[in-house]
Amino acid sequence: MLVVALLLLSPSTMKAQNKREFRGAWIQCVNGQYLGKSTQQIQAMLTQQLDELQKDGVNAIIFQVRAECDALYQSDLEPWSKFLTGVQGKAPSPCWDPLQWMIEQCHKRGMELHAWINPYRAKHGSTSMEQVSAKSVVKRRPDLCFSYDNLVLLNPGLQEAADYVCTIAADIVNRYDIDGFHIDDYFYPYPAAGKQIPDQQLYASNPHGFRTIGDWRRDNVSRFVKQLGETIHKIKPWVKFGVSPFGIYRNKRNSPIGSNTFGLQNYDDLYADVLLWVNNGFIDYCVPQLYWEIGNKAADYKTLIQWWNKNAGNRPLYIGEDIERTAKFADPVNPKSHQLPAKHRLHQQMNNVKGTVLWYAKTAADNVGNIGHTLRDYYWKYPALPPLMPFLDDKAPKDVKDLKMEWTEDGPLLSWKAPKAKKKKWGDVANRFAIYRFEKGAKVNLNDVTALQAVTYEDTYKIPYVKGKKYVFVVTALDRVGNESKGKKKNVSF
To answer: How far is the C-alpha of 171 from the C-alpha of 388, rounded, in Å?
Structure first.
């Protein structure tokens, strides 16, 4: 496995960091990482991952909470997940709520928490019908489902199925203080050789005016995505709704708008018209899964990031990165290095790319290919604020109040009060704070990324003690979607 050495990181590689950047990581459950572990062991494992990811510069966790119409949270609507306890419907012992725990742990580290569900999959391929809980929709409402290649899926052609998923989403959004809501790339099932989706009769009975079943299927998915986004925002307008589609929209051989690639297609094979969702504001951010390497003959990473940058800029665009593949393949220009520097350069060249999501979190936490440590030491050395979403809200909160420094048993501590907000105006509410540090006498410039010390959900910050130094600390307030107030200054001398 290739490793980036210090001497390989040229000044051009080390281009200035962005002040605003989504730096996410997916924490999955279907890889079985929780199975056979006690509550304490799972929490210890997740704590270790979060600690390492925080050091790596990650500022958002996308946490899988629903893999097969089940729950990794306390739910009265769906059964506990077998991927948590080993048995679907069996509560963890001692009982805990992984989603609530993760929200608290992420916010403690200044990270956003996005709840990730699979909307349609009702029975995973690794789950037998005998293992399905009586509480599952598979057994309660088989009329809402169809079987396909060892899977059971909610039928996208049924409005009642869409309503059901939106009910689940509404329950999560209502009860949990999440920052985002996330769905992955499984819409209509990935095609299996010789298998046909059993929805021809449903299409024939109600084609909705569409002449082809493909257009009908795409409309089913698009109407659901629009409904889901509206459901989320009606409850909490600040919760960011994101989608991580498969990395190819269409191939050029199938459409003039397509990319010069040769692989599975969102539009034609999964019936997911992602550009429609982006261009019509059905979603708040898009994370295409570009898991291939630069130079891949069927799906070249460079070709795809350029394509998405050109065609999907109407909503914040983040790139899903496969850590293991990035570490495995050599930089075509510099064969002594893996592909992280080259991919990073491409990110910096793309005007519409506003962030990265790492697949998957554990590989970064385990520092596979030295990727994690390269991020923390170079590319993500300084914290970053979330990208702006003016289509949700563009008004900054008021300034923090009563900024002061005091000495405690643990050393110097900054403290402040959140600005007052009008109860009916969620955009006025500050829920995070940014802390900047400048040398005494230096120009206070909040666009200087090297000055940003931390982003915190707390109203205190422990100042690192440096004997003999004089600093100016600046604290700003951030609202739910990342709009930033003006700064309040505090002179500190050690």
So the answer is: 27
Closest CA to 308 of 247, 253, 368: 247
Query: What is the rounded CA–CA span in Å between residue 68 and residue 168?
Result: 12
The confidence band for 9, taking pLDDT boundaries of 50, 70 and 90, is low
The CATH architecture assigned to 6-379 reads: Alpha-Beta Barrel (3.20)
114 forms beta bridges with 62, 180
Whether 20 and 353 have beta carbons less than 8 Å apart is answered as: no
Average pLDDT over residues 215-232: 98
Fold of 401-493: Immunoglobulin-like (2.60.40)
CB-based contacts of 414, cutoff 8 Å, min separation 6: 403, 404, 405, 435, 460, 461, 462, 463, 473, 475, 490
Q: How many residues can be counted in the chain? A: 494
Q: How far apart are CA 125 and CA 153, in angstroms?
A: 11
Quote the CA–CA distance of 57 and 344 in Å, as a whole number: 15
pLDDT in tens, 38-89: 999 999 999 999 999 999 999 999 999 999 999 999 999 999 999 999 999 9
Nearest to 266 by CA among 229, 308, 296: 308
Within 13 Å, how many C-alpha atoms sit on residue 269's CB side? 20
Backbone angles phi, psi at 450, to 5 degrees: -75, -15
* 314-330 confidence digits (pLDDT tens): 999 999 999 999 999 99
Please tell me the distance from the alpha carbon of residue 100 to that of residue 72, in angstroms, as a whole number.
10
User: CA dihedral in degrees (431, 436, 440, 445; nearest 10)?
Assistant: -110
DSSP per position, 259-292: BS--S--IIIII---HHHHHHTTS-SEE--B--S
- Helix, strand, coil proportions of the chain in percent (round to 5)? 30, 25, 45
Query: Which of these, 237, 209, 205, lies nearest to 223 by C-alpha position?
Result: 209
Residue-wise pLDDT for 449-491, tens only, equals: 999 999 999 999 999 998 999 999 999 999 999 999 999 999 9
R_g of the chain, CA atoms, integer Å: 23
Domain boundaries, the chain: 6-379, 401-493
Tokens representing residue 153 in the block: 């899926």
Which single residue is written with the structure tokens 């079943």?
A: 213
Peptide bond between residue 94 and the one before it cis (omega within 30 degrees of 0): yes
3-state SS record for 33-90: CCCCCCHHHHHHHHHHHHHHHHHHCCCEEEEEEECCCCECCCCCCCCECHHHHCCCCC
What is the distance between the alpha carbons of residues 144 and 107, in angstroms, rounded to a whole number? 37
